[in-house]
């Protein structure tokens, strides 16, 4: 995914025009578990990255976990989405993509179909529901909001990716540190891809730029089942900042 800069916190959202049922319903039925997956719109050099994306999709589907993601149909994004749809159907996946990125993070399934607003969207039968939004800020807020409204075990997982994936991951971790949300944040560390990030976190603690207790805001896993389990068992850091965001 591409980076769009710091976005407004999810608690500032109003209900968007394209709303999911969970945003509107007051049902007593427990909400589904939702995981927002941050990952690259490229497949990566090693086939291990694609294999990890597919494995995460299968594990999520087997556990009836819904996917929220950046809406692309290429690279790791497309692999996670179409894997889940192939098992649990289109309603299990919601992609959210800015209009400007449609021509970059898409495959040929965008060619013929348009949504109610005239935007080209991929085949829902292959990639699930897609919402096209105006900008990166809206994309990130909506993805985060769906996770915050999800059931137990909902959270954020980062597969391998570039600048955009890293920006989304660290912003989500920062929101957790500031007390904006308390959902788990996990990196799926494939073949040591995130070793450098984990070294940086340890160095930040050593140099006293990060509280030791907050080093665990980002948890790690090396396989799909481990990532899902890490979110289920996620413990909120007691070192987080006790800030009140209710007036925002």
Structural overview:
This protein has 248 residues and is α/β, with parallel strands linked by helices. The protein has 8 helices and 7 strands; from the N terminus they run αβαβαβαβαβαβαβα. The chain has helices at 21-24, 47-62, 75-88, 124-127, 136-148, 163-177, 195-206, 224-232; strands at residues 34-38, 66-69, 93-98, 129-133, 155-158, 184-188, 218-221. Strands 4-3-2-1-5-6-7 form a 7-stranded parallel beta sheet, with helices on both faces. Helix 3 links the parallel strand 2 and strand 3 (93-98). Helix 2 (47-62) runs parallel beside helix 3 and helix 2 crosses helix 8. The protein is globular. The two termini are 27 Å apart. Residues 1-6 and 11-25 have low confidence and may be disordered.
Mean pLDDT metric: 87
Helix percent band: 25-40%
Question: Could you give the count of β-strands?
Answer: 7
Number of DSSP helical runs: 8
Question: In terms of structural class, how would the helical and strand content be classed?
Answer: alpha/beta
Task: Give the amount of beta strand, in percent.
Answer: 5-15%
Radius of gyration: 17 Å
Main sheet record: 7 strands, parallel
Spatial ordering of strands, largest sheet: 4-3-2-1-5-6-7
Flag low-confidence runs.
1-6, 11-25
C-alpha termini separation: 27 Å
Shape: globular
Query: Helix and strand succession?
Result: HEHEHEHEHEHEHEH
Walk me through the topology.
Blueprint: H1 21-24, E1 34-38, H2 47-62, E2 66-69, H3 75-88, E3 93-98, H4 124-127, E4 129-133, H5 136-148, E5 155-158, H6 163-177, E6 184-188, H7 195-206, E7 218-221, H8 224-232
Parallel strand pairs: 1-2, 1-5, 2-3, 3-4, 5-6, 6-7
């Amino acid at each position: 995914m591409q980076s769009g800069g710091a976005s407004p916190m999810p608690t500032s959202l109003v209900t968007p025009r394209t709303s999911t049922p969970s945003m509107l319903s007051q049902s007593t039925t427990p909400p589904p578990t939702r995981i927002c997956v941050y990952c690259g719109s490229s497949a990566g050099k090693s086939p291990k990255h694609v294999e990890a994306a597919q494995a995460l999709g299968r594990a999520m589907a087997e556990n009836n976990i819904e996917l929220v993601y950046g809406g692309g149909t290429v690279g790791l994004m497309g692999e996670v989405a179409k894997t889940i749809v192939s098992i649990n159907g289109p309603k299990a996946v919601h992609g959210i993509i800015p209009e400007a990125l449609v021509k970059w993070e898409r495959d040929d399934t965008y060619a013929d179909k348009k949504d109610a607003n005239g935007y080209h969207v991929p085949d829902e039968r292959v990639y699930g529901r897609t919402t096209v939004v105006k900008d990166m800020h809206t994309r990130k807020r909506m993805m985060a909001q769906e996770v915050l409204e999800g059931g137990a075990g909902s959270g954020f997982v980062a597969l391998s990716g570039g600048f955009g994936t890293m920006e989304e991951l660290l912003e989500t971790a920062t929101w957790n540190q500031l007390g904006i949300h308390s959902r788990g944040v996990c990196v799926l560390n494939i073949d040591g891809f995130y070793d450098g990030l984990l070294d940086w976190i340890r160095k930040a603690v050593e140099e006293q730029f990060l509280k030791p207790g907050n080093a665990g805001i980002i948890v790690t896993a090396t396989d799909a089942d481990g990532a899902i389990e890490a979110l289920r068992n996620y413990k909120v850091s007691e070192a987080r900042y006790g800030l009140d965001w209710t007036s925002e």
